[in-house]
Each structure stands twice: as C-alpha cells, then as structure tokens.
Amino acid sequence: MDYKKSGVDIEAGYKSVELMKEHVKKTFRPEVLGGLGGFAGAFDLSKIKEMDDPVLLSGTDGCGTKVKLAFVLDKHDTIGIDAVAMCVNDIACSGGEPLFFLDYIACGKNYPEKIAAIVSGVAEGCVQSEAALVGGETAEHPGLMPEDEYDLAGFAVGVVDRKDMITGDDIKPGDTLIGIASTGVHSNGFSLVRKVFDMSRESLDTYYDELGKTLGEALIAPTRIYVKGLKAVKNAGVKIKGCSHITGGGFYENIPRMLPDGITAKVKKDSYDVPGIFKLLAAKGNIEEHMMYNTFNMGVGMVLAVDPADADKVIEALASTGDKAWVLGETVSGDEGVILY
C-alpha cells in the first residue's frame, strides 16, 4: 500500500503546479518576493509606508454552488474569476486596493489539466484586479468528494489609507445612488437557479432568444470585478460616500449595509433594464418580485452613494473602464432600509 493507492497522487500535484506556473507569473506585482512553490507567499509592504495611516483589509469567499454548473458544462477556466471577484470586490467596497490573493481548491481527484484551468481563471481575476496570486493549495479528498468534483475558495488582502476609507458615515438624505451593471447572476443565488432550471447538459445548451445565447453561457458568465472602475472614480477626484457589493441577499440585504441609521435607499426599478436572465428566472420559477430582489443582483453588481453634483462624473469615470452605470435612485430619511418603487 502507498499514498497513491489510497487516493492521493503526489505526482499529479507536482504536474498541476508546473502547469499553473505560467498563469501565476502573469499576476506578479513588483512587491512579490520569491516565486511559486515556497511555504508562504511573501509580499513587500514598503509602499504602504507612503500612506499616512494604512489600514489592511481582507476578504474571503467562494463561488457557492455555481461550481456545479462548471462540472456539467465541463468548463473550468472562468470559475476562478468568480472566486477572486467575490473577495476583491468586498475590499474595493471599503475603498481599498487588493494586494494579493490565495486560492484553495479541494477536489476528489487531482486532474492536473483541470486544476491548471481553474487556476488560469484565478490568475485572470487577479490580473483584472491587479492583485498578485502569491500562493494557494490543491487538496485531494478521496472518499470525501466525488472524483470529478471540486470546491474553490479564496482569500484576499488589500490596503487603504484611513482617510480614503468608504464607510457610509457621510451619507445624508438627497445623495444620489449610482448602479453599476453586473454581468449576470454572478456567484449568488445558484441554489435557487438550480431549482428553477434542470442542470443537465441538454438544458444548459438550450438557446434562448431573450438571452441571445444559451442558458449555460448566460449563467456561467464570470462575476464582474469592479476594482479598476472604483479606482477610476477615486482618480476623478470624487468621494464615494458609500458602496455596496450586491451579493447574496440582493438589494434588500446589501444596500442597507452601507447606510447609516435613519437613512433609506429609494431605488427606482425602471431606472435600468433588468437583464433577460432574471426575467427568465422569475417566469420559469414563478418567483415573486420581492424574492427576486432579495436573492439576486438583478443586473446591478454595485451601488454607490455620492453627492448629486458628482453623479455625471462618476458615470463618466466608470465608462472609462468599461463599466456601464446609471442613476439608480436617491437616499431619503427613514428606517426602511430599501424602498423599491
């Protein structure tokens, strides 16, 4: 008996590392010390000394049951973008710059090419967010997970000068809410999605005119990363008063997280076009409107609160990074949290 016969293939692990090296190197920033394969990822913090009062920010998350979609479609090169996005977008919500990221892949069996494809997506997410991929772990769990399945999670660290933190404390009635477009369902609500749609290859390969693509293509679209967009707003000289990443819990749970006591977000539903995937979900699943807005992002990946005088400048800055944005509503006095009208 040996380790390989027990279900853990060390040689496959070595091959996975070799295959992923080219992807990881693309993410390296000047601050990265050493290379891939050490016991710890090393990152030089000298630049932080230039800040008046640096604050470290961190975020950890996964892709939820969206990985099931990757299994069925046998498409593994974008799910890593989702893992990165879920972490770095939270850091960006506080006004921070992501510095580095680490991933964790648990699998039933290590198939090196599949693992390398997953990491290629992680690396792409890091490139999009300008975060270095400084390390990770691939763990084989024979007997605990089916051989053809895996789970993916990650952890990011960022930094912000305290004076630049987005806290929501300065939000007042009359501020403008800016919505930034999502790329679809992102990485939340897939347990409900999988109840509405049959997760078979035949079902996912079905083309829908209202989507302009197959169901699988619409659902697996990777989560939008907003780091560069928010940086462009900051560089335009605009103070973002509040920022909410619309993840699990949709509008009703996430928008109030950025609001101080006594402030309510008033959101105009027809201020933008809800993407077809959400209309299809609601129709096929007979899901009532409140539940849709309490589960999904409904086409809005982030919500910003800004001074009304800055609204046009914010939308213009976001457009420079390819982000579509619009005036979503305003803040008013009240304790309702969110009012949709």
Description:
- Helix 1 (10-25) packs parallel to helix 4 (112-129) and helix 3 (79-93) packs parallel to helix 4 (112-129).
- The longest helix has 18 residues, at 112-129.
- A hairpin with an 8-residue loop joins strand 1 and strand 2.
- It is globular, with a radius of gyration of 21 Å.
- Helices cover 33% and strands 24% of the residues.
- The chain is α+β, with helices and mostly antiparallel strands and 341 residues long.
Keywords:
341 residues; alpha+beta; 4-stranded mixed β-sheet; 14 strands
User: How many β-strand stretches?
Assistant: 14
Uncertain runs: none
Order of helices and strands: HEEEHHEHEEEHHEEHHEHEHHEHEE
Cα distance spanning the termini: 66 Å
Strand order of the largest sheet: 10-12-7-13-11-14
Number of helices: 12
Secondary structure class reads alpha+beta
Report the C-alpha radius of gyration, rounded.
21 Å
Overall average residue pLDDT? 94
Q: Shape from CA axes?
A: globular
Q: Major sheet, described briefly?
A: 6 strands, mixed
Report helical residue fraction. Answer: 25-40%
User: β content, as a range?
Assistant: 15-25%
Summed up, what is this model?
By secondary structure, this protein is α+β, with helices and mostly antiparallel strands.
